[in-house]
Amino acid sequence: MARAELMDFDQALELFEPVIGLEVHVELNTTTKMFSSAPNPANSEFHGAEPNTLVSPVCLGLPGSLPVVNGDAVRKSISLGLALGCSIAPSSRFARKNYFYPDLAKNYQISQYDEPIAFDGELEVEIEGGKTFMIPIERAHMEEDAGKLTHVGGATGRIQGAEYSLVDYNRAGVPLVEIVTRPIFGAEADAPALAKAYVATIRDIALALGISEARMERGNLRCDANVSLRPRGHEKLGTRTETKNVNSFRSIERAVRYEIQRQAAILANGGTITQETRHWHEDTGATSAGRPKSDADDYRYFPEPDLVPVVPSAELIDELRAALPEPPAARRRRLKGEWGFTDLEFQDVANSGLLNEVAETVAAGASPASARKWWTGELTRLANASERDVAELATPAQVAELAALVDAGTLTDRLARQVLEGVVAGEGSPQEIVDARGLAVVSDDGALIAAIDQALASQPDVLAKIRDGKVQAAGAVIGAVMKAMQGKADAARVRELVLERAAAVQ
Amino acid sequence: MSDELIRLSAAELGEKLAAGDVSSVEATRAHLDRIAAVDGAVHAFLHVEGERALETAADLDRRRAAGEALGPLAGVPIAIKDVLVTKGMPSTSGSRILEGWIPPYDATPVTKVREAGLIPLGKTNMDEFAMGSSTEHSAYGPTHNPWDLDRIPGGSGGGSAASVAAFEAPLALGSDTGGSIRQPAHVTGTVGVKPTYGAVSRYGSIALASSLDQIGPVTRTVLDAALLHDVIAGHDPLDSTSLPMAWPSMADAVRRADVSGLRIGVIKELDGAGFQPGVRQRFHEALELLERGGAEIVEVSAPHFEYSIAAYYLILPAEASSNLAKFDSVRFGLRVTPDGAGTVEQVMSATREAGFGPEVKRRIILGTYALSAGYYDAYYGSAQKVRTLVQRDFDAAFAKVDVLASPTAPTTAFKFGEKLADPVSMYLNDIATIPANLAGVPGISVPTGLAPEDGLPVGIQFLAPAREDARLYNVGGALEQLLVAEWGGPLLGRAPDLTAHELSATEEGAL
Amino acid sequence: MSEISAEQVAHLANLARIALTDEEIGHLTTELAQIMHAVEKVSEVATPDVPPTSHPIPMQNVYRDDVVGNTLTAEEALSGAPESDGSRFVVTAILGEEQ
């Protein structure tokens, strides 16, 4: 549907109530895969391995191979379930979901069907602006990821028109937790922002638990968005679509918004919505129809005979519950209060995904204000310029050290920015860079006075103005002195000394 | 010398090897010679190792000469059912779709057999993916029963049973999903054991029905079966359903065999209509012999066994339809590209059409049906409930008796083609063996003689509670001792001379 | 319950990815009906009060430590492949032209 044919968002909201449902897949960062002892590419240690080098007979579905459950993946799944406010099933089991696809080595996926490990949860999610929603979680279940297909031939590298495809099974068997919400009502115009904030909250939980790298761009975190509209005043839910291939937080918001506008336009024109899978296209900002749901979706689930039930002890669940981190929404409230930020300042940090960095920097001794300033300011600018992840550029300890040097007067802001460049370039700690590059502020008044006297001597007209009480004229001298000192001077101190010397010089 | 070597039991051969009376190379060569002489007529093997087996044997002889401590079967040759994957040896599971596939790993029972110093001779023929009771469903042609080459050797493990019956190997590995070890033993006059589910690792066994499959020994004597059982059983962390327990020695159970005071339950539902007279006659004679040996014979009822076949032929196809989905032309095995190339879906479908035989297709379609939406509860779900009822029957019976007994199969070996056209009557062959697989309990088939009406071998089946495999070796060992004493020698001593037959077959072929 | 049509068999064959010939579909339609007739007797005793059994020997909580074990090389992984490009498996186009 062309953009022009979409219904205006506000108008769509007047006519229809959007109902959304979200399915999020979280790749666990265990050392090995869900059912095989092959290395897990979702663990950063094995990221980027050559194709088909992280595989065992189990990952390839070789005849005779058998799955064995990774105990650590089960513990991480339970922790995630608990963090989502779910009940943990006293007994759950695996099932086979049967369908043929070349990236699915056994042509069945081991998943959980009628007995998920976690169910009936609730998650508090805060959207931009501070409004919060309770998201009802239906279930979270364990399953295995499929391999990766690369389509060759054809113009676009897409599946359409490809001549052949290449299969890499490194990802086959990566442990996944699929989190499914119940239908979410009442978000209204906030539905797109809520969808985004929900996935961001799951990211925060996964990171706080240390169970996933949780990088959307790497596919550690994937979201399928179900959207349906129901006409105002109606009871019955509308037909839903499921949008896949949404690979960034921003895309989630855009895709949900797009589907609301698209479906509204169709319904308002008397059309009907087809229950189907749709694909999000980042480039065009639109969804396109995929396969309609059909009887080909007869997955013939049955209990996985090669695996036995998962029956976690009450002790294990208690132990994992006791180790849970603070829930993200509560943590945000606490940090905002502790830091004394305005709404705007806090949003600035939170929306940049820098809460952890700022918190750790404060914990390392920096003031909240300076921690915020360096992360959302200069470091973010450097990250954008180099197209890198800001969290990769510096450690909270380095930023705290930098802030301490500024507070101590060793560095001016300008010098500190130079030091940061050195940190980003991997030259060492801020103090090491100060020493190596000789960037410390010149606090020796003798050196400053010599430079000031020289500047005053070479600008007698300025000196005269200062003596006449035109103090603002001192700026020219200050500038010359700062230049002479190569910026390594505290401008305020220079100003004090300039006024002193102007009065003193005969 | 060569003929003497092949007629020794594995236990006897092991003793001679240990004593230095014979080398493993000699023993292996004797069996390879025998295979060369008779396998043209029997067709028990799909692959023979030849030189490589001799190298392995030579290595074993060196280790023995160096004074290494070796197990009782070290140096003894063994045949391996083609359902087990073997590193460096083709593994086809009797199917065209895996023709030429050489796995990059060994099945756990194969690893254990190698570690115990046994010498793999090759891979034995079977019904395709172990679906059948006659080996007629092998993609590579049937195996012939050494007692009568016009008859089936049982199935699916007809190759393993025929290889030991024809003295091509003293020992073989089999797999039993509904009787594929026990029924071939019954029709070839050999011994076959299906251990408790989970006693032997399934890792590397090309799955037919995961909740029913179990690997076990195929031999000529009960002691040989016990010795091999002791080698292959034990916990395997690569199989989640492998039982984490220590097992008593089965060989000790045979050596101490004593049935005095043993309560043997005769399953009345498996002792009547549908069973050939000669099969029943030998069965009851064996029971009388045991009774004279001090056992107590009691009749027990297992009212739900009659539903076993129906449940089995829902559970097996359902699990098999999923297990066999991996044969899709992408990672291994056959690829058939239809005219005009086509999509990967068309390539998969054409490959599976060309690579699977009719029985495999029949069961995949049946299983797909039993699991499909709207039918699951009526078919697969109901079959799982019957499984519960069959287990309850076993529980009730084992509350009264120590072991259960029945004829192993309703008839002696039938002729090729006799039941091929009628799948339902073929399925009835497994009536006595299937309940054990549904319940996971162990079973053994021991030869009881020849049916008077056709002179073909018949066997008796004993079943024990789960984890009580040693009871089978006790009763089986005792019965074997009594029968051999009565016969004055092993039953297989009466089997026809295959080398003579081979000669005439060759002559006929030349005409 | 055991009424099975040729269309149903064709649909099952499609689900199971087997390109059955019309002749095979014909045979299987007859055979399947016979077999289903024989096996549907399970419903006679499968009453609601009977729990299903999926595993013959009940077990629970069988786990593996999260430690890297035997891994194949790419060469071993691809050794049985009908077609590969040296590092990945090759399959023909996934979608047809009409899609």
Write a brief caption for the model.
The complex is a heterotrimer of chains A (506), B (511) and C (99). Chain A is of the alpha+beta class and 506 residues long.
C-alpha Rg of chain B (nearest Å): 22 Å
How much helix, percentage-wise, in residues of chain A?
25-40%
- Tally the structural domains of chain A: 3
Quantity of strands of chain A, as a count: 15
Number of strands of chain B: 11
Largest interface, with counts of residues having CB < 8 Å to the other chain, equals: B-C, 75 and 58 residues
Mean pLDDT of chain B: 95
Structural class of chain B: alpha/beta
This entry's quaternary arrangement is heterotrimer
Per DSSP, the total helix count of chain A is: 17
| Helix percentage of chain B | 40-55%
CATH domain class of chain B: Alpha Beta
- Quick check: average pLDDT of chain A? 91
* Biggest sheet strand line-up of chain B: 1-3-2-4-6-5-10-11-9-7-8
Query: How many domains would you count in the coordinates of chain B?
Result: 1
Catalytic activity (chain C): L-glutamyl-tRNA(Gln) + L-glutamine + ATP + H2O = L-glutaminyl-tRNA(Gln) + L-glutamate + ADP + phosphate + H(+); L-aspartyl-tRNA(Asn) + L-glutamine + ATP + H2O = L-asparaginyl-tRNA(Asn) + L-glutamate + ADP + phosphate + 2 H(+)
Organism (chain C): Agromyces lapidis
Protein name (chain C): Aspartyl/glutamyl-tRNA(Asn/Gln) amidotransferase subunit C
Subunit structure (chain C): Heterotrimer of A, B and C subunits.
What does this structure look like?
The complex is a heterotrimer of chains A (506), B (511) and C (99). Chain A has 506 residues and is of the alpha+beta class. Helix content of chain A is 40%, strand content 19%. Chain A has three domains: 3-319, no CATH class; 326-437, no CATH class; 445-504, Orthogonal Bundle (Arc Repressor Mutant, subunit A). In chain A, helix 11 runs antiparallel to helix 12. The termini of chain A are far apart. Chain B has a single domain (2-305, 388-510), classed as Amidase signature (AS) domain (Amidase signature (AS) enzymes, Alpha-Beta Complex). Chain B is built from 18 helices and eleven strands. Chain B has an eleven-stranded mixed β-sheet with strand order 1-3-2-4-6-5-10-11-9-7-8, sandwiched between helices. Chain C has 99 residues and is mainly alpha-helical. Chain C has a domain at 1-48: Histone, subunit A (Orthogonal Bundle), CATH 1.10.20. Chain C has four helices and two strands. Chain C has helices at 6-15, 22-39, 42-45, 74-78; strands at 63-64, 89-92. The chains are: A alpha+beta (506), B alpha/beta (511), C mainly alpha (99). Chains in contact: A-B, A-C, B-C. Strand 2 of chain A pairs parallel with strand 1 of chain C.
